[in-house]
């Protein structure tokens, strides 16, 4: 058996009253790919941040390559040969690739000679691992896949033997993710140890040698990947049996409720981000928009819901046009039956310091049932909130609690309850399960199918391809601001993945 | 006086008037590039000027004055750093507080120590940074065109003037050619990237604000010991804010900062020059209008002519490790 690269003993860490890590033991063999899986908030990222010296454990021991190690800062971790690719890239956006790679590992105080060395070293890494990237390119001009490559190069440049990747595929197309996995396998062949943090079971099965499962801050199991199944891992993650597939019947599409024609949107810099997009959503169907994050989906949602100004095009809601000058009145749109679950619940969907019951009516607070003359009817509002808490199983069941104190999944349920319970004609949903645990995902998916079956027109935008495929009745793929194709829900992941990367299989075949 | 001589004299005073702006703007550049906004340049410069005047008056040495100015100004910079880096306070509030403290304390201490209505005693030439005649300045004076340019415009300034203009390429070199500069620019854009690269964000920003302190100390010294013969209350007269405007105007880059400061210096010199002289077509222009001209132009330039100035992305935001 190979050597141990990292051993953790009894690691615990609390943030205030939250016990993020409890008494964690973990052994990672050198030269393997070790997956760490768990729901959001299970403590995976905290554990890795402790290993990388970003946080200090309250108790416990770490040893690296058999020797006890005190990791107090990231520079200690770097010195021990640990590198980390963070979920949110730690890159300086207006620096070049070379500058980013050098930062913190510059060598001498004056850069003249070290720039040359860094350039040569980058060339070598590029050759050895197939990590091609132009050293003089500016980060903000690079696609996310390449930005991630720069993060990997940063770690290798510092001589990392142990590489931690935190949710690396969240921002990648399936093809880019496959490429990443090839690179990881090659790194493994070179003798590097890789720790892969993810909540996607498929990735674990595809690439890891061993997998550890975390739940609520504790390490609940470690398995050889070859000896486990997706079902077992899912159950370990959630602590109970979960349905991985969404069950749904045939859609019965009715009349067109939402119609978008030739919608074009430009961003603040004048770049066209949504390019002559047209789509129809009928009553009783879910139309899913797939695409890698940043291909115009967000701006499309914002323009359709009247939040963002459009340059040209029309949006029709149940036969009447929606104002596209950016001055549409959200209350008016809601009155006309357009409910909106925004992509970013923290900044747009909720006011986190407010109480749950206040967020539960926000945007609908003008309705007579919440008013007593000119004043809010606090009792009615709270009763209404308690009803929704019960119906959507929002926990903890306390309508006076500050919204920030709910978990991601429960916060999302607060937003969904608010929008769905208004009986809208059109429901526009952005990233319904981002940062939401598996148990809540199951619930949210079921509710969305219910909405469809009640005859609502649902427009769904998600970067999770699995979600799009299991919920949608029709799938539109967006790439670089355009709708590049429409497919049925049975379309293979590979084909959709190619579309998401801007490659049309039919055209490519010709 | 012919037009050429007038022009040389005008440019000569442009140089003199732009030096305090240049030093203060370069000072602000270090701090703001590291992500610490500094609206307290004015206060630090004023405190530096007072310390320079007081030290020079007591010791009789211009160099002791400079030392005192730098110590006091760095101290104020560290106070700003302590509030905004260590305690993650609001950088604008902290900067404004420093301006108030400097404005008040210089007058109180000046009155308590020297009893001349808040000013420091008038200094003899030996306790000041006097003009330096460059070699051959006299010899070439009569050469047409180039002679006056060399002997009037380039020669005959104090040491601090030459230092200020040399600091422009030096700052560029530090910023773009050294390890410290790379890290400084990085921490102003994305401190998390610096932190995860194993570099202390706080220590880096403290070093940046110390650079700011040194340079505002130098700016204050220039006002008290080179441009004037001692400290006069409120002698910075808003120059710290004009320097801040120049910094934004130049989009936080050293060489454009120099040109921006020269432009503001020129406006100032022009206003002084045309005071009381009737202009063709317009006639007599009120002095107050000419004095307001630099400020009016600042507003106009900032409002419309420089395009969007994008500050360092992490500017003004205290760094907190995210959970």
From TrEMBL, chain A:
GO terms for molecular function: ATP binding; ATP hydrolysis activity. The keyword Transcription regulation does not apply. It is a peripheral membrane protein. It holds the Pfam family ABC_tran. It is found in: Cell membrane. PROSITE patterns: ABC_TRANSPORTER_1, ABC_TRANSPORTER_2. Residues 6-241, 258-505 form the ABC transporter domain. Keywords: ATP-binding, Cell membrane, Membrane, Nucleotide-binding, Repeat, Sugar transport, Translocase, Transport. SUPFAM superfamilies: P-loop containing nucleoside triphosphate hydrolases. It comes from the Bacteria. GO terms for cellular component: plasma membrane. The keyword Phosphoprotein does not apply. Belongs to the ABC transporter superfamily. This is ABC transporter. It comes from Nitratireductor indicus C115. The lineage of its organism: Bacteria, Pseudomonadati, Pseudomonadota, Alphaproteobacteria, Hyphomicrobiales.
UniProtKB/TrEMBL annotation, chain B:
It is found in: Cell membrane. The chain crosses the membrane at residues 48-80, 92-114, 154-175, 206-225, 231-250, 257-276, 288-306. GO terms for molecular function: transmembrane transporter activity. The keyword Cell inner membrane does not apply. The keyword Iron-sulfur does not apply. GO terms for cellular component: plasma membrane. InterPro entries: ABC_transp_permease (IPR001851). Keywords: Cell membrane, Membrane, Transmembrane, Transmembrane helix. It is a multi-pass membrane protein. Its main location: membrane. This is Inner-membrane translocator. It comes from Nitratireductor indicus C115.
């Amino acid at each position: 058996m190979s050597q141990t690269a990292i051993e953790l003993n009894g690691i615990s860490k609390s943030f205030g009253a939250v016990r993020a890590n409890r008494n964690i033991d973990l052994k990672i063999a050198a030269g393997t790919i070790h997956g760490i899986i768990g729901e959001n908030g299970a403590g995976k990222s905290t554990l890795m941040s402790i290993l990388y010296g970003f946080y200090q454990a309250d108790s416990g021991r770490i040893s690296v390559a058999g020797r006890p190690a005190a990791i107090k800062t990231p520079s200690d971790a770097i010195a021990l040969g640990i590198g980390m690719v963070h979920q949110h890239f730690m890159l300086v956006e207006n620096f070049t690739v070379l500058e980013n790679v050098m930062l913190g590992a510059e060598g001498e105080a004056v850069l003249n000679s070290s720039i040359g060395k860094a350039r040569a070293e980058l060339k070598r890494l590029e050759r050895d691992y197939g990590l091609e990237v132009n050293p003089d390119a500016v980060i903000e001009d690079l696609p996310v896949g390449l930005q991630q490559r720069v993060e990997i190069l940063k770690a290798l440049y510092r001589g990392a033997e142990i590489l931690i990747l935190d949710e690396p595929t969240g921002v990648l197309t399936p093809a880019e993710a496959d490429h990443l996995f090839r690179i990881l396998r090659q790194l493994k062949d070179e003798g590097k140890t890789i720790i892969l943090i993810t909540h996607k079971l498929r990735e674990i099965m595809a690439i890891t040698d061993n997998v550890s499962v975390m739940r609520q801050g504790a390490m609940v199991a470690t398995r050889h990947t070859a000896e486990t199944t997706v079902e077992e891992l899912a159950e370990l993650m959630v602590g109970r049996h979960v349905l991985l597939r969404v069950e749904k019947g045939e859609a019965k599409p009715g009349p067109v409720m939402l119609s978008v024609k030739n919608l074009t949107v430009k961003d603040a810099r004048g770049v066209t981000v949504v390019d002559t997009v047209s789509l129809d959503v009928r009553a009783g169907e879910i139309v899913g928009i797939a695409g890698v994050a940043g291909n115009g989906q967000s701006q499309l949602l914002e323009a359709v819901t009247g939040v963002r100004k459009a340059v040209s095009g029309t949006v029709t809601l149940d036969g009447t046009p929606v104002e596209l000058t950016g001055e549409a009145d959200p209350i008016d749109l809601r009155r006309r039956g357009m409910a909106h679950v925004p992509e970013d619940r923290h900044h747009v969907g909720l006011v986190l310091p407010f109480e749950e019951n206040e967020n539960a009516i926000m945007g609908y607070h003008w309705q007579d049932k919440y008013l007593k003359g000119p004043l809010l009817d606090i009792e009615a509002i709270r009763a209404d909130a308690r009803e929704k808490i019960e119906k959507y199983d929002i926990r903890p069941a306390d309508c006076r609690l500050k919204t920030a104190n709910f978990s991601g999944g429960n916060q999302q349920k607060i937003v969904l309850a608010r929008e769905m319970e208004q009986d809208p004609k059109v429901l526009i949903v952005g990233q319904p399960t981002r940062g939401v645990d598996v148990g809540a995902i199951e619930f949210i998916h079921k509710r969305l199918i219910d909405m469809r079956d009640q005859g609502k027109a649902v427009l769904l935008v998600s970067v999770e391809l699995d979600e799009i495929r299991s919920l949608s009745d029709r799938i539109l793929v967006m790439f670089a601001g355009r709708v590049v194709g429409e497919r049925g829900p049975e379309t293979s992941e590979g084909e959709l993945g190619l579309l998401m990367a801007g490659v049309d299989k039919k055209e490519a075949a010709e | 006086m012919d037009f050429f001589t007038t022009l040389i004299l005008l440019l000569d005073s442009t140089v003199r008037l732009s030096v305090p702006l240049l030093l203060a703007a370069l000072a602000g550049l270090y701090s703001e590039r590291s992500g610490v906004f500094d609206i307290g340049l004015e206060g630090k410069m004023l405190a530096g000027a007072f310390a320079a005047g007081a030290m020079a008056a007591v010791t009789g040495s211009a160099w002791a004055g400079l030392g005192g100015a730098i110590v006091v100004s760095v101290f104020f910079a560290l106070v700003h750093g302590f509030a905004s880096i260590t305690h993650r306070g609001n950088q604008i509030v902290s900067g404004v507080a420093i301006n108030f403290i400097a404005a008040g304390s210089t007058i109180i201490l000046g009155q308590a120590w020297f009893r001349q209505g808040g000013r420091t005693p008038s200094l003899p030439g030996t306790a000041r940074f006097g003009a330096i005649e460059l070699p051959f300045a006299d010899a070439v004076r009569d050469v047409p065109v180039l002679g006056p340019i060399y002997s009037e415009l380039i020669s005959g300034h104090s040491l601090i003037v030459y230092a200020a203009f040399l600091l422009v390429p030096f700052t560029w070199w530090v910023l773009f050619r050294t390890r410290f500069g790379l890290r400084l620019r990085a921490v102003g854009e994305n401190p998390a990237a610096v932190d995860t690269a194993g570099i202390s964000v706080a220590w880096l920003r403290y070093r940046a604000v110390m650079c700011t302190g040194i340079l505002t100390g130098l700016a204050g010294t220039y006002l008290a010991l080179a441009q004037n013969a001692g400290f006069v209350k409120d002698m910075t007269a808003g120059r710290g804010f004009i320097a801040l405007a120049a910094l934004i105007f130049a989009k936080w880059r050293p060489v454009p900062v120099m040109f921006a400061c020269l432009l503001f210096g020129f406006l100032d010199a022009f206003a002084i020059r045309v005071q009381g002289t009737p202009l063709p077509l317009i006639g007599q222009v009120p002095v107050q209008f000419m004095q307001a001209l630099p400020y009016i132009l600042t507003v106009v330039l900032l409002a419309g002519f420089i395009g969007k100035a994008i500050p360092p992305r992490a500017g003004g935001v205290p760094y907190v490790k995210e959970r």
